[in-house]
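Box S1 | Example of a co-folding query
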Amino acid sequence: MSQALQHLFGIGQLSREQIEYLIDMGESFVELSRRPIKKAPTLRGKTVINLFFENSTRTRTSFEIAGKRLSADVINISASTSATSKGESLLDTGETLAAMQPHVLVIRHSLAGTCEFLADFLPHTSIVNAGDGAHEHPTQILTDLLTLKTQADGYQGKTVTIVGDIAHSRVARSHLLAAQKLGYKIRLVAPKTLLPSHVRQYGCEVFHDFDAAIPGSDVLYMLRVQSERLTDNCAFPSIREYHEAYGLNRKRLAQAGDNCVVMHPGPMNRGVEIASDVADSARSRILDQVEHGVAIRMAVLTALCGAAPEPEKLSPKKEKAAAAMQAQGKLL
Ligand code: ASP
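Box S1 (continued) | Returned holo structure for aspartic acid
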């Protein structure tokens, strides 16, 4: 590992080894969530604050469950219930919460770069990016990679076809960064108005015709249209036209290879980017992604708190990697 880090801002900051280490640790935590008693003492005495300025179901809940399963004290704050709704600035909110001495602050915000900005002022708090504007969503990508590792025969050399609102998707952007580091291929499919030309710099294939991108895909990764980020001048087809051209239905899924799986970061808009019967089909890994989201967030919190996972859950190779990382003070 090249450098010890204190925060998780994005996939862009992580080395391949760090990404793989977090995925492996996440895998070791899946089993804990399936036990009748879902509790380990790993983060006892640690405090995690979830500070969400944008709506969330999966990410916020899974960070909360992840912290609680590892015995951390977890506090949730949403924009509507925080003093920002009384005019307090982001920085004042951050400094106020940091003064309460949490170990980790998990932040979701509509502005790209929020976490890096706050980290400059909060030297004693680890910050996790739970989604910042259209910039990055690192824990979603770690979740997806764990799902591919365990439910779809791995990600190495695979072709992940991401379909939908690429322009506003932090998930697509983080996948582009991860693919370069981990050696999987990305195809992007979108109408021209939802696909900025700069994405080509990431070495991905670009399609405007969904049907042309399906053969050879190992994963069809569907994105929600980010209506909250669409501006007036962004041309968007009607819902019906969009579903016809870019929705994943049974007919399209039949064009894919037998082992091709379907993924979605959620929340889904059934009947828009994905047909209901496809979302519920045997090819769908969408609920596996949700389950793995908890395990990955357990791994990320563990790493940021400088704690170690239960040693018997790691293979000797992984134990060695963990020991090397711990020797540097923090796992991340
Ligand atoms: N949950 C993902 C995100 O926060 C995808 C979405 O909202 O459509 O970016």
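The two ends are 9 Å apart (CA to CA). Residues 131, 137, 170-171, 224, 226, 265-266 surround aspartic acid (CB under 6 Å).
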